Every structure is written in C-alpha cells, then in structure tokens.
Request: fold
Amino acid sequence: MNSKLKEPFVRITKREDTPLLKAWGIRLFSLLLALITCAGIIYLIVKLNPLKVYVAMWEGAFGTSKRSWITARDTMMLLCIGVGLAPAFKMRFWNIGAEGQILAGGLATAACMIYFGSSMPTWALLIVSFAASCIAGAVWGFVPAAFKARFDTNETLFTLMMNYVAIQLTSFFITKWENPIGSNTVGIINQSTKAGWLPSFLGQQYMLNVIIVMTLTIAVYIYLRWSKHGYEIAVVGESERTAKYIGINVKKVIIRTVALSGGLCGVAGFLAVSGASHTISTNTAGGRGFTAIIVAWLAKFNPLVMFFVSLLLAFLQKGAVEIASRYDLNDYASQMITGIILFFILGSEFFINYKLIFRGKKEVN
Amino acid sequence: MEEKTAVIKMRNITKSFGSVLANDKVWLDIYKGEILALLGENGSGKTTLMNMLSGIYYPDAGQIFMGENEVSIRSPKDAYDLGIGMIHQHFKLVDVLTAAENIILGMSGKGLLDMSAVNEKIRSICSLYGFDVDPEQKIYDMSVSQKQTVEIIKVLYRGADILILDEPTAVLTPQETDKLFAILRNMRDDGKAVIIITHKLHEVEELSDRVAILQRGRFVGDTLTKDTNAAEMTNMMVGHPVVLNIERPEPENVKERLRVENLTIRDIDGVKKLDDVSFSVGSGEILGIAGISGCGQKELLEAIAGLQPAESGSIFYIDTKTGEKEPLIGKKPREISAMGVALSFVPEDRLGMGLVANMDLTDNMMLRSFRRGKSVFADRKSPRELARRVVTELSVNTPSVDTPVRKLSGGNVQKILVGREISSAPTVLMTAYAVRGLDINSSYTIYDLINQQKQKGVAVIFVGEDLDVLVELCDRILILCGGKVSGIVDGRKTDKREIGRMMTSLGGESSEQQA
Reply:
C-alpha cells in the first residue's frame, strides 16, 4: 500500500494556447540543442572542430553570390511544391504524388521546348510551356481526385502509383528524344538557341524563379485564407458531413482543389526544366516531391511559413554537400546532421503542445 | 446524519486545465451500500472529479483516502486494484468481439484462457444482479442498453465495489431506465457504493440515497435525498432560483406548412429506415417526434433537409399565403434554399455536422452565409457581427468569437448552432435532440428559443428523447416505432407512459391489453 502513496514521476498535461513568442522560443532552443548535439557527434566520430564544420556549411550555402543564388533556386523549387501541396493537404487529401506531378509538368515543358523551340518567339514559348506544365500537373492531380470523389478510393495509394506512371512515361520520352543517340539522356535542350529557357532578369539567372514562386506563394496564401473556395476547402477538410449539410458540392471541391494542387506542382516541373536544368530525366523531381511534404507539414500548411522551412532545408542540403566534399566525408555524415536537426525541430512541437510536471512540483496558476 | 464510515474520502481535490479551474478544493465522501447522485450543471466538474477517482486524470492538489490510508490513483489499473470502476458516457467496447471478450480485455491471466469459465463467471454476475446479457453475443449485434450492461459487467468482473456511472440514462428509454435503476438498487443492497453523475433531477429523486452538488467546480454540499426537493437542488446547482416549468403557448393561426406523404427510405445496406411515413406540420406549432434512438428520426429530418435520398413518397413545402405546394424530394440543400424555402436544421451531431469543431465562432457562423455576394472572397464581417450578437443575446460563455467551438462546453456549442440556425428567419425549424447533454439552464434557454420561433409562426419539428419534455413542450407528438408511424397524439392529452408504450409497439397495443 505504501508504494501507492507515490505520485507519478512525471505527468503530461496539455498546454492551452502557448503564446506565440514562447512557442518560437522553444523552436529556437530546440534548433540550438540540435546544433550542439550534432557538434558532439561530429567531434566523436570524425574528430573535427564542429565550429569549423558549421562555418563550412554556411559557406556551402551562402559562401559566394553564386552559391546563394543556387540555394535560392532550390529553396524556390521546394517552396513551389510545398505551396502546391498546401490546398490538397488543407482539405486532408494526402497528395503524395507531387513527384509525378512535377515530372508531368517537366515533360510538358520539355516537349514544348523540343517541338516549338524553333517556331515560336521566346515569350510565347515560355507562356505555352508554363500553361502546358500547369495543365499536365493538373491532369495528374485530377485523375486520383476524380476517383476519390466518385468511388472514394484511397488518395495516398493512388497518387503514389501515379508517380510510377509518370516515371515510366519519362523513360519512354527519354528514349524518344535521346540526344545524342545512344547516350540514353535527353541532353541540354536547345543548348545553342536557349529557346524556352527562363531568361535572366535584373542580371540574375534565377530571379524569375524567385518572382514566379513568391507570387504563387502569396496568391495561394490569400486564396486559402480569404476566398470562398479556401473556406470550402477548409470545411471539406474538417468534416465532409458538415460540408454536405450546408450544401457544398464535396465532389466538385475535391476535384477542383487537387487539380489546382497538381497544377502548382506541375509549375515546379516547369521551373526545374525551363528554369534550372534545361533537360529532363527520371531524376528531375529528385525526391523533392516527398521532401516538400515535410515542408508543408512543418509549416502547418501555411504558405508563408513554408518559405522559411524551404530555406532551412535547402541550406542544410547545400551545407551538407559542402562539408562532405571539403572534409572528405561521405554524404551519409551530412544527412545525419540534417536528420538530427529535423528530429529536434519536430520534437519541439511536443513541448509546445504539452508540458511535463515532475513529482513534487505543483502547478502554479 | 447516521453514523457510517466513508469508504472513500476526497479532500481538497483541485484540478485545472490550462486556465480553467475544473475542480476547486472539492470534498466528497462515498459510502458503501448507498447510491450517491453527483449533480451539477455542464462544466461544473462532475466528470473531471470522477475521472480522478478512476485514474484518468491525476489531481493537481488534494488527497484521496481509502478507509484510513491515503492513496494515489495514477492509472485506471490503480483504480481497479482499489475496487473502483467507472462506466463512461461513451462506451469503450470493441465492436467485433463478444461481450465476454470485451469484459476480459486487458486483464492479465495465467497460461491458457478458459473462455467457458469466463462465461460462467459472467453468468453468475448476471444472475446475482439481474442483468440480461449473453456473454457470447457480439457487440455490434447489441442495443445501446445491452452495450451499457456489458460495460457495467466489465467493471463488476474486475471486482469493483465502487461503481461510477457517467450519465447512464442519457441513451435509454424509460423502460430501460427502470431496469437499470432496479439493477443499481440490487447492487446497493449488495453493499456496493454506486455513484451516478446526472443532471436530471427526477432521476436523483427516484434513485439516489444521497445527493452531492457541484457548482462551477466547487462543492456546494451534500444531503440525504429524502431531505431535499427539486427546487432546492436546482437552487444549489445553479446558484439562484429557477422556474422549472416549460411554457406551452397556445398555437395561433396554424396553417399547413410541410407535408410528408408515404415516405419510405432505405439505408445503404437496403434496410428500411422509414416505412410509409405520412404527417404534416403547421406554422406556429411544435410537432414532437418520439421514438427509440435509431428508429428513423435522423433519416426523416435529413430527407426533409435534402441530405437523404428517398425510395418513394413525397415531401411538400406549402406556401401558407398562396397554398402552393413545392416538392422537396430529390433536391439538394442548395436547391432548396434557392427555392426560397427557409429551412433551418439543428442536427443531432452538433460538432460533426452542424458545426466545424476546429473553426472559431465567426467561421462557423459563415457556414450558412459564405456564398453570399459575387466576390471571390468570403465576407467575414457580417458573420462576425452575427457571432457577437448570438454570444450576447444567448449569453454564450466564450473567451471571444475567435475561439474554436470545440473548446466550448456542450450547452454553449448548442447555443451557437441554434443561434445560427434561427438567425436566418426560418419558416421551418427542425431540431434533433436539441438539449441532449445540456444542463437545466441551457435547456430552458433552448426551449424558450424554440417557443419564440413557434410564436413567430415557424413550423417546428422537435425530435426529442426526454419524454417529460416532449409532453410538456409539444403541441402534437408523432411516435415512430421501427420506422413506422406508431401514432400521432395531442401533447396536452397524453402522458409519457402512453408514448413509451407506443415507442416499443405499433400503436402501443400489446401493452395496452395488460393495462
């Protein structure tokens, strides 16, 4: 009976409305803690000065103006996909098919560049490729959405499988567009004419990428936050029964929203092909369709917050590549660092939503 | 009071959730061989207090004594070890398992599981207290009352001699309630301590030996039930005197507003939910609908609202001025409102259908109005004003109109929903279990609102479960039995026994022969 007298060692209680400042304080603290942990691990395993490693990471991402712009380009790519996922996720439609939607958009762009490269002025070609990529991505979103709306199929499996269709389709077109013959790649499209390449703007090669994506980000933020459609998306996501009760056409909203989501991811494909690599391969999406899921969730589907998350992830990736090459470490070491930092940031959400009360301490009000 | 030693003493129990103080230095004594009614309004901390006894929550401060020893109840298992068992309002059963499997679920045993011994023990518990349940029956085949029985046996099987029941009668018919009360009395006579959480006064008077009252998290007092009366208990519970009569103004100028003819509805599995139902409702009257839960009430209301396709039959909306009839069957909710039919519907599932739990008050008000105007942007200004108006007019207890509705208590949630639905000046108002789970104060606010609508000439359909209320409030009462109309009676000339009989047999015939 005596043991029963003991209070539990630790109790978990939910926090109500953690103040914004405190929440961000906790997040910042967890980032700091992650960096310290990483430092310890780096030192233990490779006996390098952790500070030097961090400096190298910083230099890898922002060391020169060119590097900064490449980091910016990759940030925009992730952000574009994350923003594309936002409407679907807000509706609780788990679109994990961004990878396929990007490829579909990229394929459409590459096709426009190859077939219309010599017959259209640059501005028209760009507009046509942009529209084509958007439509291709939307189709890749429309198919699973239509099945979900009509037959209530599982969107996660369906969108995932659509990725493989897109990959196979890309392989098919690579053999069709092979250049030079026998290389099994498409090569740089329109290398001499640069037709269909997103041009430099204000003297910066990637300035247009930034402008396009930031415009889309703000537009999607406004769309979700203030438009009637955005409200419908939120209601359908929270409760389909409520949506039906007030007369929202749930099927229409699902199809419309996921097509939009796919279309935005298709634009990311346009940026990857026309605005960055100027070629198409099965690696054009490169797993970023999945990384963007992390971006969307970490930002709680808020497009504006996604900017910061994308920047963090792009920075970590660039930094990791830099330390891998500079200190002769392999990729895995740098991925460990990324993993540890993400773990801490995700873990901090627990401490924002709950608090621990240890034995003997009383709650004070 | 007579000399008895308390088996459990709770002293200075305090528990808060965030900034909300749910229990504030509560004292409570529990005696063996006694039925204690824990009475209080919504949000007065009854369930929280009992959850601390059953190990769901751990108190922030205070002590619990079992006999002479102070105990610490850290988990439901600790509670079971001390012989405390709680039957929650929402059953926690696995549908695909049998009663017996559910009962032993989570218990540790030695070696092989001897199901026949388990069944034997369950049967002996059943015969001891008068339960009627088959241990080998699957849960999904059971009625609500049978499921509740399984929950009670589950607790007894674990050797509990202190039983806590959280609003056990909310889902039962009067006949089932009588049966439950008989069983609880058997338990008391067997020396067990029984605690029932309730806010129904007549149950307290009928069943309990002692009543303890909480008001806003504070312990107001306890007394022997025979020494008190309904009025006194209400005063203690609410903190000020309350008049306990439901008004029933005479209906004026009743004209047929809505007519349902030969309505038949099947659910997805092809089961007939409504069978040849016909009735009509007039403007300025309240038509009550009584029936055991799941007898087609939900389907009936949803069919009128355009949410449920019908197999056959028709529903007409009648313009009281011109006498023109408009068919509603086959129309979607948007088409119905586009026709100019001002239909308001307070569904049974408030947070799953009527409101969006995670959205704030303003956004919930918007559900009905967001489509207005041609702009692509939704207007949030007027819903915000409406939210403010509902909050002040119906005295909704909320920190602000930006609070998600899931954070509000049941009564306040219902006020928001009803407030929104009547704000659109309806001509037909349908409510399903409008006061389920609400305390006296909130319930009477809702009755008042419904009566106001009736006096404005609205045709009100009131689906209810508390027969006392139906008989007091409604002008006419339609009784459903297994999807068929068992009868339509005059609310002023009937009583709840008659309705109860009609709920269980068509026309109430078989029982009438005995009477």
About this structure: Residues 174-189 of chain B form the longest helix (16 residues). Residues 511-515 of chain B have pLDDT under 50 and may be disordered. The CA atoms of residues 140 and 483 of chain B lie 20 Å apart.
